[in-house]
Amino acid sequence: MAKPKRRYVCSACGSVTSRWQGQCADCGEWNTLTEDAPQTVFSTRHDLSSGGRPIAFEPLDAPGSLPQRRTTGLAEFDRALGGGLVPGSAILMGGDPGIGKSTLLLQAAARIAQAGGQVVYISGEEAAGQVRLRAERLGLAGAPISLASATSVRDILTTLGSMDAPALLVIDSIQTMHSDQIEGAPGTVSQVRGCAFELIRYAKENGTALVLVGHVTKDGSIAGPRVLEHMVDVVMAFEGERSHQYRILRSLKNRFGPVDEIGVFAMAGQGLQEVANPSLLFLSGREEPVPGSAVFPAMEGTRPVLVEIQALIVRLQSGATPRRAVVGWDSGRLAMLLAVLEARCGLNFSSAEVYLNVAGGYRLADPAADLAVAAALVSGLADRPLPKASTWYGEVSLAGEVRPVAHGGIRLREAAKLGFASAYAPADSSGEVAGIRRHDIAMLPRLVDRIMGDT
């Protein structure tokens, strides 16, 4: 057997190097390289073609039954999960500190326990008394939850093995767990990977829905090895600004349901409350339109959400370099859109500062937002408000074409439901929706003409 080699793994991005250094060469983080447990390197003469146990194959059309989901009692949480908790599934939930991950899971655990399901809540960051105080503040002190504060995976699995398998097991958080069979402090790559593997194996064998709370790095991604996201069935991100009352639970990976589905909550004195109509949160509600404001019907999974896009154009008097500031949208896509408006429409943004904001702290990734952003930019540049009660959506190409996007009918129906009278969109086959007038826009210069009032 060959001599094992040392290797060091970055706890921020998971990259591997053969020697230790102060800064990770891949992600640029400092003091994140930790020595991983050495791997056993076998000789090339080691043969794995015999001595194993034969496995049984099954046909692809073998009869089977769909898993019976268990609802959490929170409709927005169930929506993000794809319909509820699947027995034997592993869920990883990440989010900024203080965003409300523990509060949400405690509320869901209490609903399941009150409905007759056995729930085990293991806290590795807080004492049991702290969790009880939160439950009392939320009015959930009477929920029959089995609560414990522990960090040893061996102790947790030994205790779970001596009792009936629970319907829900919450581990808060996976970075605080440790195994005495793995070298390294809690939170290292090897510890997180090994502890998660043991907990997931228990969940699969016993049909328990497992929820792992994960820490995040300063850029918002889940801390620890990237392989952790591959091991679990569902990856969820709890987003939002602590200065705002709303929170968005977004599904990033789901083996049992649609991806990019969201659930919207509002933080209140009694915990997180569900928001049935999130469009009302992201619209200003003003009576008269103002320049630089456009409403965009976004699609989050299967749910349409109307958001307001705001643009401010400031002309510079001196030769200073104009600034571009973006909140809630891709800055690279804004630069591309500004270039298209200058090259195809003859507008001049080179001597002006451009500020773009998605109201309410919402984050947009839908490419159909191009037309709404362009409308807000042109409206802000011309200092003319857009037509009242109008929505805008469509993808803009480098040639200035407005390309069709998916789910046009769903976007129009949501806009009509909230009282919008007109929609400016690309020509597609989504058809007409009662109560809303549609204006087809094929080229971006046509949009500029409408806003500038040349036609």
UniProtKB/TrEMBL annotation:
<keyword id="KW-0863">Zinc-finger</keyword>
<dbReference type="InterPro" id="IPR020588">
    <property type="entry name" value="RecA_ATP-bd"/>
</dbReference>
<comment type="similarity">
    <text>Belongs to the RecA family. RadA subfamily.</text>
</comment>
<keyword id="KW-0346">Stress response</keyword>
<keyword id="KW-0067">ATP-binding</keyword>
<feature type="binding site">
    <location>
        <begin position="95"/>
        <end position="102"/>
    </location>
    <ligand>
        <name>ATP</name>
    </ligand>
</feature>
<dbReference type="GO" id="GO:0003684">
    <property type="term" value="F:damaged DNA binding"/>
</dbReference>
<comment type="function">
    <text>Plays a role in repairing double-strand DNA breaks, probably involving stabilizing or processing branched DNA or blocked replication forks.</text>
</comment>
<keyword id="KW-0547">Nucleotide-binding</keyword>
<dbReference type="GO" id="GO:0000725">
    <property type="term" value="P:recombinational repair"/>
</dbReference>
<dbReference type="InterPro" id="IPR004504">
    <property type="entry name" value="DNA_repair_RadA"/>
</dbReference>
<keyword id="KW-0862">Zinc</keyword>
<dbReference type="GO" id="GO:0008270">
    <property type="term" value="F:zinc ion binding"/>
</dbReference>
<dbReference type="Pfam" id="PF13481">
    <property type="entry name" value="AAA_25"/>
</dbReference>
<keyword id="KW-0234">DNA repair</keyword>
<dbReference type="GO" id="GO:0005829">
    <property type="term" value="C:cytosol"/>
</dbReference>
<keyword id="KW-0479">Metal-binding</keyword>
<dbReference type="GO" id="GO:0005524">
    <property type="term" value="F:ATP binding"/>
</dbReference>
<dbReference type="InterPro" id="IPR014721">
    <property type="entry name" value="Ribsml_uS5_D2-typ_fold_subgr"/>
</dbReference>
<feature type="domain" description="RecA family profile 1">
    <location>
        <begin position="66"/>
        <end position="216"/>
    </location>
</feature>
<dbReference type="GO" id="GO:0140664">
    <property type="term" value="F:ATP-dependent DNA damage sensor activity"/>
</dbReference>
<protein>
    <recommendedName>
        <fullName>DNA repair protein RadA</fullName>
    </recommendedName>
</protein>
<comment type="function">
    <text>DNA-dependent ATPase involved in processing of recombination intermediates, plays a role in repairing DNA breaks. Stimulates the branch migration of RecA-mediated strand transfer reactions, allowing the 3' invading strand to extend heteroduplex DNA faster. Binds ssDNA in the presence of ADP but not other nucleotides, has ATPase activity that is stimulated by ssDNA and various branched DNA structures, but inhibited by SSB. Does not have RecA's homology-searching function.</text>
</comment>
<feature type="short sequence motif" description="RadA KNRFG motif">
    <location>
        <begin position="253"/>
        <end position="257"/>
    </location>
</feature>
<keyword id="KW-0378">Hydrolase</keyword>
<keyword id="KW-0238">DNA-binding</keyword>
<dbReference type="InterPro" id="IPR041166">
    <property type="entry name" value="Rubredoxin_2"/>
</dbReference>
<dbReference type="InterPro" id="IPR020568">
    <property type="entry name" value="Ribosomal_Su5_D2-typ_SF"/>
</dbReference>
<dbReference type="Pfam" id="PF18073">
    <property type="entry name" value="Zn_ribbon_LapB"/>
</dbReference>
<dbReference type="InterPro" id="IPR003593">
    <property type="entry name" value="AAA+_ATPase"/>
</dbReference>
<dbReference type="InterPro" id="IPR027417">
    <property type="entry name" value="P-loop_NTPase"/>
</dbReference>
<keyword id="KW-0227">DNA damage</keyword>
<dbReference type="GO" id="GO:0016787">
    <property type="term" value="F:hydrolase activity"/>
</dbReference>
<feature type="region of interest" description="Lon-protease-like">
    <location>
        <begin position="353"/>
        <end position="455"/>
    </location>
</feature>
